[in-house]
What does this fold into?
Amino acid sequence: MHNTFIALSLAAATGLPVAAVAQTAAPAAAAPTPDHVFTGNVGLFSEYRFRGISQTFGKPAIQGGFDYAHSSGVYLGNWNSNISSGAGFPSGNIEMDLYGGWKKSWGDWGLDVGAIYYYYPGTDANVANGSTGFYFTNPRNARTHTGSVDNKEIYIGGSWKWLSAKYYYAFDDYFSLPGTKGSNYLDISGTYDLGNGWGVVGHLGSFRLKNWSVGTNGTNANYTDWKLGVTKDVAGWVFGASYIDTNAKGNNCGTPTAGFYCFANSSGVAVPGATGFKFKDAGKGVIVLSVSKSF
It folds into this structure.
């Protein structure tokens, strides 16, 4: 927020009314827009939810990243978080996102196009395509995916004032699940400024996983997620509290008929009913608390 102040001392010295000084004083020159902008962010969250699904088995997450933006609209960035290996990332404990694209705004309207690569160093995708953290089968494509678990998506988004929508499309196997190219996610979000540092946030998402029949009960992995929360900015630190929920199938957790989103607390051959593991409905509603800062 920019404020303009009238020099009352100048009015007193000249004997002119304040309004006259305001009319005759030369306006301050606007600061030029820099061609290159570098920013960073860091945050602490009571739980990491990706598209409504728990990635840390209900445990806290520390997250952060860096961004570069050019005046032309081109941008590049990196974002990172700790994750649970049982969420489909065998032997992994960190997520690293690399993204880039182009965005521009025209008045109240905005456009954003780009691509994002999700990478999980140290993971074994071949194990992830067995039964680890969740229980599933893919009768339409029995091949395996070797190497680290990853995901590659392109996206296009638009915004109007405080509303935005973005569509993501996986142009390779979705998080290394064989035969799932073409999986997609639609994100509709809103962020409204209430003033005095307060804000409200809302979100509705829809996910579609291609070509999968999940578990012995034949359920699929498609779901809808939603979020409603409030934020408060205190000297640049943003505190938040949000309720996040989904209709994802994580029911009958710990049994052979568990839904796709029944996750284990660690990787391994963790089919529901196995001993030595704890299981959790990863899509069940939860309140997430957070504090973050951009710099």
